[in-house]
Amino acid sequence: MFRRLILEEWQNLLLILGFLLIACAFFAIVVKTVRMKRKDREYMANLPLEDEEKRRSAESGETTSSNTSDEQSR
To answer: What domain range is 14 assigned to?
Structure first.
């Protein structure tokens, strides 16, 4: 099936360029996270994953007008 697909030389260069851009972005993120200071890591680890108000209303079973509008938009 892929033998029918004929790529020109410039198209191969675009594939390689796209791969290199994504690989560079990935490695930059990895290097940044590895070199992160301990204080910053602890701050990120303690960030809440959801809003406090939403968590409280979900625990109590109450629905607010903002929650119902969010559910209706989905």
So the answer is: 8-73
Give the total residue count for the chain.
74
This prediction has a pTM of: 0.51
Classify residue 57 by burial, with Cβ atoms within 10 Å: 0-12, 13-18, 19+. Answer: middle
Residue 3 lies in a domain: no
CA dihedral 31, 34, 35, 38 (to 10 degrees): 160
User: If the chain, 74 residues long, is cut into consecutive pieces of 10 residues, what is the mean pLDDT of each piece?
Assistant: 72 92 98 94 88 77 59 58
pLDDT of the residue at 17: 95
Note whether residue 60 is domain-resident.
Answer: yes
